[in-house]
Design brief:
The complex is a heterodimer. Chain A is mainly alpha-helical. Chain A has helices at 6-14, 20-32, 34-55, 64-108, 112-123, 134-145, 147-165, 169-190. The relative contact order of chain A is 0.09. In chain B, helix 9 (138-149) packs across helix 11 (165-188). Classes of the chains: A mainly alpha, B mainly alpha.
Chain lengths: 191, 192
Amino acid sequence: MKTRLDTLRLFDFWRGRLSQEETREIREELEISPELKKQFDADSQLFSELRGLSQQTYPAPGDFSQNVLRMARKLNAEIDEQFSLTRVLGYSAACSAVLGAALFVIFLSPEYGQLTLGTASGIQTIPAENRLSPETYSLVLQYLRGIYGELLILALALAGLVALGKRRQEAAIILCCLSWILLFIRIFCTL
Amino acid sequence: MPTLSSNVSESESALIRAIVGGETNRFGELVVKYQDMIYALIRRQVRDPGTADDLAQETFVKAYQNLRRFRQECSFGTWLTRIALNTTNSYFSSRRFKESTKHVPFDSTRHDVPGDSSAVEVERSFVVLRSLIGELKPKYRDVVVLCSLENKSYEEAAEILEVPVGTICSRMNKALSMLRNKFRIISARGLV
């Protein structure tokens, strides 16, 4: 009986799960060892509590399945809603990335010089009271007009798509909006 | 009550495929089939029927959410039992459970079940045992729940917990020893 599975063997003996041979062995041990018998009697109270609890029947509440289905439907609706938002964000980020890339290509094209000339004359038409300080405005324009502008738009849009892929919708919304804002500035203020 | 056969039956497999394929309303058929088994498994560990109801619902909702990932390598009942055990273990390690037992000594838990019917009397006698089982580490609690409260064989428990039968036996032995020691202390204080 002095194995490392002592308690388990006593438990299995108590609930009649041992073979005849093992049962006989333990009976003999209990007869010759008063100490073991005392331990077994003490443990029997725990064993009988365990059996009592295992024999309790607990049927699920009557409205259980309806409640589960209600929760599942709610979950479905949330998933659909999330899916719609994800789709809109995905298209939006993709469009932004495509437009950013298109501007990038324009920047690299031989005709780009003409576009920037047009931009330069356009700046002069903006009323003075609507402008930022001339230095800041021209600095911002310089950056946005250059290759960094397109790269930034492209990077933001792609980061938005990555965030979407990682199911971080809030980050995706922010990145997507930023890319669109920059895209609008790039198109309407610098061309 | 459904049993945990090692393979998914043909009809159950078809039902699961139909649910995954879009017939989500048919999930109710699985719920009805397994609700008593899962509710009882949780209720035997958790004193409060409302909490048991919440945890059982959570179990089914998790199963519903992850049904696409169920590869049918074991029976649905086995998979669901794993989810139920994990859900209950999370509850036992949650602040919600710790707060609920923080200021409740054993001697007062004997009298915290309202009503006076015989069923309530029986429930009172299990308050201490449930508390002791709840104090066990998850790996020991799981085997006690499966092998003694749910009367699963060691082989079935090994399949559910995905460990060898020998591990189940040694964990069960250790869990029983821990329960026995705690139970003796409680008994000596006359609280059982």
